[in-house]
Amino acid sequence: MKCLFCKFGNTEVIETRVSEDKSSIRRRRSCTNCRKRFTTYERVEDLPILVVKRDSRRERFDRTKLREGLLKAVGKTTITAEQVETILSQTEQIIAERNKSEIESGEIGGLVADQLKTLDKVAYIRFSSVFKRFVDVEEFENELKKLI
């Protein structure tokens, strides 16, 4: 594994943990060159799932893209990086259990939003405002009233 920082080609594993849902392995690594530490995740690659977008385009499910959107929503909240990974893993697990080759993008948004709602209401509203596409203040206000 290459170092994230100096790109040296040799790192050592310091610690290994299996995630709570046993779907991935978390490894803490240390670069043998610069001594900086970083985390990697190892998971089984499943058959590709196609995401059906609002405009009917189809693209391959991309965990990284979902993570980026989730990280924007949870910025400056109490949600940790591990909780983000748990949300991602649980969402992937739910999608895989449905045993379908395609899923609507709105369904994925709903799965993530449901998990955020129980963890942090601000992150939930931020995420929902993008995936539900609030057009005006009234829609935003209605969603807030549901939370209260």
Describe the structure.
- There is one protein chain.
- With 148 residues, the chain is an alpha+beta fold.
- Helix content is 45%, strand content 22%.
- Helix 1 (63-74) packs across helix 2 (81-97) and helix 3 (105-119) packs antiparallel against helix 4.
- The protein is globular, with a radius of gyration of 18 Å.
Please give the structural blueprint.
Blueprint (H helix, E strand, L loop, with lengths): L10 E8 L5 E8 L5 E7 L6 E3 L5 E3 L2 H12 L6 H17 L4 E3 H15 L1 H11 L5 H11 L1
Parallel strand pairs: 4-6
Antiparallel strand pairs: 1-2, 2-3, 4-5
Helix pairs in contact: 1-2, 1-4, 2-3, 3-4
Q: Key terms for this structure?
A:
alpha+beta, 3-stranded mixed sheet, 6 strands, 45% helix, 22% strand, globular
Which strand-content bin applies to the residues?
15-25%
Question: How much is the average pLDDT?
Answer: 89
Structural class: alpha+beta
Number of helices: 5
Give the fraction of residues assigned to helices: 40-55%
> Strand order across the biggest sheet?
1-2-3
| Overall structural domain count | 2
- Order of H and E elements: EEEEEHHEHHH
Radius of gyration: 18 Å
